[in-house]
Amino acid sequence: MSSQRTPVAPPEFEAALLSLRGHRLRPEFKLEEVPAPTRIAPYALALTGEVNPGSDPEDLAGSGRFVVLYDPEGQPAWNGNFRVIVMGRAALEPEFAADPMLGEVGWSWLTDALAAEEAPYHSLSGTVTRVLSETFGGLELRSGEVEIEVRASWSPQTTDLAPHLRAWALMTCQASGLPPVPDNVSPMKPKR
Hints:
3 helices
C-alpha cells in the first residue's frame, strides 16, 4: 500500500491564497470555490460567482469565474509566475444587440474595475463577446435574448490578489446591471 503525499504549496502561492479570504463583497454576489484546472499550471485555484439581487434562482442576473494559476518556474506567455483568468457573463436588454460600442463598454467595465480597486497588473488580454439567441420550434417562443461575456487574463504584480478579486466581482456586477455602490458606503442585504 503506497501513501501519496499532497505537495506542499510554495509560500508565494499560499500568500496569494490567503489574500483572497475574508472580503466583504456585495450581498448580491455569491462566491464559491470550485475545482481548479489541473493541466495549465502546477498550482491553481478557481472560484465562481453569481449575481442574484433576490433569493429566487430565477433572479440570476449574471455569473462569472475567477482562476488563479501559479507556476514557480514562470511561463513566458505570462511574463511572470502568476496569471489571473476571469470571465463575467450577463443577460442584457435586446436593444443592446446592435450597439457598436458594446464590446468597448464591456472591456471598460474590466479596466475601470482594475483601476478602481488599484489592482497592479501587466500583460492584459481578452475578449468581449455578445450572443443573440432566438428560439424556434417547440421551445417557448421568446423575443431575442442578448448576453455579454467578458473573458480576460493578466499577470498580477504582487501576491496580494484581493484587489483583483474585487475588480472581477465589480466587473461582473456591472455587467449584470447592478448600480455602483458609492464610496464609503457598505452595501446592505435586501430585506426578504
